[in-house]
Inverse folding.
């Protein structure tokens, strides 16, 4: 069984982002870019399924500019066997990405697609579900545990108030939550090996996909700042302030 | 122009997040209808018809809706979608699971975590974990939206007089089956709906200490319990208590953070709280930069004192 792992190149989670002064977006020039952390968990999960003998081949996919090749090399250093870049400099919204992935799903015929639940830049949390809908496949979002056997995936999901377990007939789409696994560190020998692995490049048009935007960003602003309040000397003062000033207890 | 709100419920009652979503739907400019798709959910549909501002409830009944599986729920919404300009879900685990599926089947974009409705086609939503706010305009005829509940006041649960109409249920997809769940049962308010939240961080040091120190404070205040990601990762508190970018987004009247340093990730989940109290012995902790009242103290001393003083 093949596993397709779509990954996104995003601003590194440690970077404190700045809104551009002309309010057209967030300044991402010259900032560190990394693999979306949830996608790293997805790659790790796929590699573990291969190590268990469930999967035979892992294909990492990314959609975006040529620099995404670096991110794909990282995925191959973690353990993906080969990679596909669907190269475009156009703005990609989740539905367009899902359409590209649908085309690749048709081409590669994987048994599972595992991807992050959301990207930490646009925070959309849409692509996996959209791909499932377009391919008419079952989905398990926010996975914290994945078991694959007998043509089914048994997935424990993080839901409000606790956990839920669903069983999906393969092929299926899984999106990862934070605690599914802890991705391994990539080692130097594996980084070297990843450089030799196959990386194919397509254009969206090669896959018959037309990029279309459904949302127009009119403006990006800083959130309202919350100013620091006061320090109180002791618990008695705190309780008095909460009762008499804030009136919340 | 009519908006359809997909009710979140447990077949017995409508969940609170539905009420905030109804408010957002009303701001889109037209009538508000509510879909209750469930199993033995007749009473829930009736209850939904009492929500202020709802003119009609559509009730779809079937065993395959009992657990809100995305495949079945999305198909049911799609069957009704033709009549609506806006389709809104609460931005909860359930709503986020279903909404993009509906949008893709309609070949429209989806607008996630809307915090403000500027007009029928323009919305505000946080990006980069709330470190920036995007104003976005939908270019689609139909808008599929998830609503961040902290951005909207809840509609009154009673006082409305909507009609209830039943609709034919779509068939079970058969590709996905619910096997079971572990939902924590307790008397505490739900984290996302609580008026007061007391939240603990890594400084608690162990699951036992977390329980010993934080639980009595929550009991005293009738509060929900929350935790920082560090505390959850360390195993001091269950996953679903996590407040932050990747956990729950909360905005209670009072948020008490004890032993939480205030990573950006955490602040993204609670900075819209009305009043924030921080108890931390590190004077430089970033949490103090957003706290209305900061108490520089050892939480193991201060929290018991606080319980006594309340």
């Amino acid at each position: 069984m093949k596993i397709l792992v779509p990954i996104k190149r995003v601003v590194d989670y440690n970077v404190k982002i700045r809104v551009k002064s002309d309010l057209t977006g967030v300044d991402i020039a010259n900032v560190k870019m990394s693999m979306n952390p949830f996608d790293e968990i997805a790659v790790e999960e796929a590699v573990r399924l291969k190590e268990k003998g469930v999967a035979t081949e892992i294909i990492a996919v990314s959609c975006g500019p040529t620099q995404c090749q670096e991110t794909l090399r990282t995925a191959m250093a973690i353990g993906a066997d080969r990679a596909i870049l669907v190269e475009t400099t156009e703005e990609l919204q989740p539905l367009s990405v899902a359409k590209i992935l649908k085309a690749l799903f048709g081409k590669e015929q994987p048994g599972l697609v595992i991807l992050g639940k959301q990207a930490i830049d646009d925070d959309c949390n849409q692509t996996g579900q959209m791909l499932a809908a377009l391919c008419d496949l079952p989905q398990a979002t926010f996975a914290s545990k994945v078991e694959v056997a007998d043509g089914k995936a048994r997935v424990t999901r993080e839901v409000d108030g606790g956990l839920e377990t669903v069983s999906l007939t393969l092929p299926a789409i899984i999106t990862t939550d934070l605690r599914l696994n802890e991705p391994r560190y990539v080692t130097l020998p594996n980084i070297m090996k990843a450089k030799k692995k196959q990386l194919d490049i397509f254009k969206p048009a090669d896959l018959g996909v037309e990029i279309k935007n459904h949302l127009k960003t009119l403006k990006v602003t800083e959130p309202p700042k919350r100013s620091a309040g006061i320090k109180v000397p002791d618990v008695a003062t705190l309780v008095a302030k909460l009762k008499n000033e804030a009136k919340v207890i | 122009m009519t908006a359809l709100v997909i009710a979140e419920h447990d077949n017995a009652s409508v969940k609170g997040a539905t009420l905030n979503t109804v408010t957002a739907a009303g701001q889109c400019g037209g009538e508000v209808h509510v879909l209750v798709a469930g199993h033995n959910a007749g009473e829930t549909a009736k209850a939904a018809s009492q929500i202020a501002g709802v003119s009609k409830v559509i009730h779809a009944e079937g065993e395959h809706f009992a657990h809100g599986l995305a495949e079945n729920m999305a198909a049911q919404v799609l069957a009704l979608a033709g009549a609506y300009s806006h389709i809104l879900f609460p931005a909860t685990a359930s709503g986020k699971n279903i909404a993009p599926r509906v949008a893709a089947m309609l070949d429209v974009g989806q607008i996630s975590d809307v915090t403000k409705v500027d007009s029928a086609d323009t919305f505000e939503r946080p990006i980069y974990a709330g470190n920036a706010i995007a104003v976005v305009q939908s270019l689609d005829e139909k808008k599929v939206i998830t609503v961040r509940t902290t951005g909207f006041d809840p509609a009154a649960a009673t006082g409305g007089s909507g009609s209830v109409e039943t609709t034919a249920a779509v068939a079970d997809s058969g590709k996905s089956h619910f096997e079971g769940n572990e939902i924590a049962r307790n008397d505490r308010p739900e984290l996302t709906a609580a008026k007061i939240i007391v939240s603990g961080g890594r400084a608690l040091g162990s699951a036992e200490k977390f329980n010993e120190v934080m639980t009595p404070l929550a009991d005293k205040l009738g509060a929900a319990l929350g935790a920082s990601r560090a505390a959850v990762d360390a195993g001091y508190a269950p996953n679903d208590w996590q407040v932050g970018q990747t956990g729950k987004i909360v905005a209670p009247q009072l948020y008490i953070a004890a032993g939480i340093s205030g990573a950006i990730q955490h602040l993204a989940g609670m900075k819209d709280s009305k009043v924030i109290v921080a108890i931390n012995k590190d004077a430089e902790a970033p949490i103090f930069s957003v706290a209305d009242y900061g108490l520089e103290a050892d939480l193991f001393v201060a929290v018991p004192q606080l319980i006594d003083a309340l």
About this structure: Chain A touches chain B through 76 residues (CB under 8 Å). Residues 148 and 154 of chain A are 6 Å apart (CA to CA). Residues 37-51 of chain A form the longest helix (15 residues). The mean pLDDT of chain A is 96.
